[in-house]
Amino acid sequence: MKRLAVWLSVLVSLASPLAAEGSDAQVTTFSLDNGMDVVVIEDHRAPVVVHMVWYRSGSADETRGVSGVAHFLEHLLFKGTDTLAPGEFSARVAENGGNDNAFTSYDYTAYFQRVAADRLPLMMEMESDRMVNLRLDEDDILTERNVIIEERNQRIENDPGSLFREQRMASLYLNSPYGTPIIGWRHEMENLGLQDALAYYREFYAPNNAILIVAGDADPEEVRALAEATYGTLPANPELPVRARPQEPPQTAERRLVYRDARVAQPYVVRTYLAPERDAGAQEKAAALVLLAELLGGGQTAVLNRALQFDSQTAVYTSAFYSPTSLDDTSFGLVVVPAEGVSLQQAEEALDRTLAEFMIDGIDPAQLDRIKFQMRAQEVYERDDVQSLAQRYGRALTAGLTVDDIQAWPDVLQAVTPEDIMAAAREVFDRKQSVTGWLMKDEEMTQ
Amino acid sequence: MRVLVIVAVWVLTAIPALAEVKIQEVTSPGGIKAWLVEEHSIPFTALELRFRGGTSLDAADTRGATSLMVALLEEGAGDKDARAFTEASEALAAKFRFRPYDDAVSVSARMLTENRDQAVALLRDSLVAPRFDADAIERVRGQVISSIRSDLKDPDAIAMARLDALAFGDHPYGHPTDGTEDSVAALTRDDLLSAHRGALARDRVYVSAAGDITAEELGALLDTLLGDLPETGAPMPEDVPVALTGGVDVVPFDTPQSVAVFAQEGIARDDPDFFAAYVMNTILGNGGFESRLMDEVREKRGLTYGVYSYLVPKDHAALYLGRVASANETVAEAIKVIRDEWEKMARDGATEAELTRVKTYLTGAYPLRLDGNASIADILVGMQMDGLSPDYVNTRNAKVEALTLDDIKRVAARLLDPDTLTFVVVGRPVGLETPG
């Protein structure tokens, strides 16, 4: 019974606890003279390639006051260039039987197309073109700004769980730009202009800030030749800023918040702790936290689930989430959705009681073995989906990790000991570095 | 082993580069049929099962029984209670997914080669010998009711529930697939046993597999997995006419963005004009940036983040559905633009340029879908449900290529009916009257 995971998906969408990035897939890496990094992941089972360009810049790299501009620019990249009319990019991808899209997160902006392998040259030609030759006018801006506001309406304003999450993130991060939503605060989105978008474009869209990933039926040497002929001709941006964002100060006070909304059908409690992320050459603590999240909330046999759904009927759903791949401090979260007749206060107390018992009782070795075996199996399953493998490379590389880190990650996960996990838990479960949020019905506002 | 019959091997000859994708029709010693694509480079198998029928088999007094039953398949089976069952599947790293739809129960499995026999035994127990233990029923019932309550506050779920009720009335299609809070609260263990007997039977199962398994191994697997299921299941529901009469139906709900779903009668999957209708809709409302609806509603006017329409040929009725979401202040304009496009396509059909473009897109995109074991297994089982033969993968693009502008115009005039195109709007839309 996993249906509750669906409506809580916004909450946990950043977590990829079973991310086993390394695999037996053939991976080749090199760099172009202008500093652009290239990763080729070979899978020759079908004549299909995924072509992606990842910029090492996302919403957390925005200037304060223009939140949402990274995502806005992502939309605007589908407008014209010197040689492509507005909309022509996607039209040409479609004419070639392909699909294309783009996504923006805190640490990256990425563009991708999925096409027949022999159409790769055209994709590289067009994607390299819009890296430097974007042409925008005021009309593009006004229409597309309405589109992103409707996107915010759809993703956030119409969903109390997402509004709640925004408030919790803003509260968790005292100084890091991770406290600002990727899509932007509405009042700032409404004022985003052409110059804001172009300023971000000029600062960050350059080959020395980009990673090319080609995954599927591609030959690394052919990719190299094509990349040199397209991306390789673009000049590096010598002014590219060093990526150093505001960091968190010591967090010394626990935060609590209540978000009320008439549209809430099912109240729940979420606790989020500030947590360390994977760092280049030092992924051990993050690996321990990945396993901690699995042990506590990864599935039917997890600690929270057993205590709150099997041994007692306190909850209808529990979960733990942790996103290890992040440039700056990330978060570790716990969720309890109370059963009928259980208050949020009782749910939170039960959560704390279960955590306290876990800290005393420690880890069930059989459960840890099962989790590690599933992680190894996940590497096998993941080889079936080269696009998702490519995404894992892109996310990790834009979060400051190296290909070596990515390939070492499965072994780092397997090497984690129960002692490592308990030490990581003791470090992370510090209420002074946490936000506890209650999502509640607002009875007075119901119709 | 032994009596295994391989009826035919179909090769994707229409797409030369994919020539290695061979669809084998396999019949097990016990007579169970499946389609197989062998691919031995990765040591796992993707298996897809579909049992035709699904939640529309629910009787009027047991709405939600099939859905709750399906949710309980992984909550204890054979000699294992829920906890032991999960521990066993985790220890094997087998991935099982059980999903109820209105016309089918879907079972998806991914199993490692190294422990496939044990994984199959476990999956077999979940299908043939689910326990429906009292504590599991109560726990999962609570989850389902929580989910039903969430749907009552979710604009999309509210809109679809209202549309289904308008279109299908008392037919099972007119009711939420999960049932209602009251109906689920009233379900007994006997209801679940009966739903299980009715839904999971050999006379309605379709199977496909792709990955690291031979035809012989699959034959044996089929008998182990499905051989002990009952031969026949519950009778299928009656066909039902689509009772949509046009207009706009507003469901008041305090939220800033109105969600609108729209629908009219669609076209059956086996209708000779289905292909023409599919291509026509790709031009009109496929969610990509090339469709008319996206161009008019989003690209030109900025009224939405997304708008799309799609054909829904169910087993007992055919719908033509769409969705748009727009701020309360602008949703009326979005609806007007959609209606105008509906009328325009019905009247004039498509242009030569549009048809050429959509053909290159559809014919180029089709082979790209067959790019992994999981996606191949999923497509193959869908083809069987649709009554297609394996050589469809070779003839499908030719069918697209053969369509003419007259075909599109004819089907647009026949299918698109602005008068019965009905909008259900959930929100506080400005400038939309609720009739009555």
Report on this model:
- The complex is a heterodimer of chains A (447) and B (436).
- Chain A is an alpha+beta fold and 447 residues long.
- Chain A has 2 domains: 20-233, Metalloenzyme, LuxS/M16 peptidase-like (Cytochrome Bc1 Complex, Chain A, domain 1), CATH 3.30.830.10; 255-446, Cytochrome Bc1 Complex, Chain A, domain 1.
- Chain A contains 17 helices and 11 strands.
- Chain A is globular.
- Chain B has helices spanning 65-72, 82-92, 116-128, 134-151, 155-168, 181-186, 189-199, 215-226, 274-285, 292-299, 331-348, 352-368, 373-385, 392-402, 405-415; strands at 5-11, 22-27, 33-38, 44-52, 76-77, 80-81, 95-100, 104-112, 205-211, 247-252, 257-265, 307-313, 318-327, 422-427.
- Chain B is 42% helix and 21% strand.
- Residues 1-19 of chain B have low confidence and may be disordered.
- Chain B has 2 domains: 2-226, 2-Layer Sandwich (Cytochrome Bc1 Complex, Chain A, domain 1), CATH 3.30.830; 247-379 and 387-427, Metalloenzyme, LuxS/M16 peptidase-like (Cytochrome Bc1 Complex, Chain A, domain 1, 2-Layer Sandwich), CATH 3.30.830.
- The N and C termini of chain B lie far apart (66 Å).
- Chain B has a 7-stranded mixed β-sheet, sandwiched between helices. A 5-stranded mixed β-sheet of chain B has the order 10-14-11-13-12, with helices on both faces. In chain B, strands 5-6 form a two-stranded antiparallel ribbon.
- With 436 residues, chain B is α+β, with helices and mostly antiparallel strands.
- The chains are: A alpha+beta (447), B alpha+beta (436).
- Chains A and B meet through helix 4, strand 5, helix 6, helix 12 and helix 14 of A and helix 2, helix 4, helix 10, strand 13 and helix 12 of B.
- Chain A: It holds the Pfam family Peptidase_M16_C.
- Chain A: Residues 1-19 form the signal peptide.
